[in-house]
Design brief:
With 247 residues, the chain is α/β, with parallel strands linked by helices. Helix content is 40%, strand content 16%. The chain has a single domain, classed as Aldolase class I (TIM Barrel), CATH 3.20.20. The relative contact order is 0.15.
């Protein structure tokens, strides 16, 4: 049976007490499952607190941590940035790279994202490469060409994909309450898997879906052939709803 990845991206949410409460409730409800890979991506300022919580609560073997962004240098005069080494030092195993909000709000290009992906691999931090089209792209029939370009440039310098994850997040379905249909999501994730298979001759790179995933629709996405899990936004802020998405 394939492993389901359930990743919670808190974005710029949750203060210290909320962080503590989240993991306390999570620990009370979480059970061991060999077919589940569970990870939480808190704001980086709470990464150490999150690590301490999961260790003290005895769930460090069930929950991994990640960061929402890193820079492509190890140290230096890069005000406000954090490096993969810093993330690893604080307990992170993953880094979300190329999220649509980073692309649209902060002007990150696919080439820039690609440098981060490459550097994460050098340092041993597993990248979660986000790709996805806007509603305008989709309406113009450009959805796949946009995603393919993001993949090509984001993975340009990557020869060995071991440890890579890809998250398909249609921009028009993020934070809007509108999600892609199961068929649309499966179709794009299938295209992504085929592209990865052609480039790297492997078909086991996890492909996740992200876009208004919640307990009511998570099962539909997980039931498809080419969706290996979800990158969850708002619904991951509540530990009960987050765990309700586990199939």
């Amino acid at each position: 049976m394939r492993k389901i990845h359930l990743f919670g991206n808190w974005k710029m949410n949750m203060l210290s007490q909320e962080t503590d409460s989240f993991f306390t409730i999570l620990a009370e409800r979480l059970t061991q499952s060999p077919d589940l890979c569970l990870a939480v991506f808190p704001p980086s300022v709470y990464l150490e607190r999150s690590r301490r919580s999961i260790v003290e609560l005895g769930i460090a073997d069930k929950v991994s941590l990640g960061v929402q962004n890193v820079y492509h240098e190890d140290k230096g005069a890069f005000t406000g940035e954090i490096s993969p080494s810093m993330a690893l030092d604080l307990g992170a195993s993953y880094a979300i790279l190329g999220h649509s909000e980073r692309r649209s709000l902060f002007g990150e290009t696919s080439e820039f994202v690609g440098r981060k992906v490459s550097f994460c691999f050098q340092k041993g931090l597993r990248p979660v490469l986000c790709v996805g089209e806007t509603l305008e792209d989709r309406d113009k029939g450009l959805a796949w060409s946009v995603v393919e370009e993001q993949l090509s440039k984001g993975l340009l310098d990557l020869s060995d994909p071991s440890g890579l994850l890809v998250a398909y997040e249609p921009v028009w379905a993020i934070g809007t309450g509108r999600s892609a249909s199961k068929e649309d999501a499966q179709g794009m994730c299938c295209d992504i898997r085929n592209w990865l298979a052609k480039k790297y001759d492997v078909r086991d790179i996890p492909v996740l879906y992200g876009g208004s995933v919640k307990p009511e629709n998570a099962g539909e996405f997980f039931s498809t052939e080419d969706i290996d899990g979800a990158l969850v936004g708002g619904a991951s802020l509540n530990p009960k709803s987050f765990l309700d998405m586990i199939p």
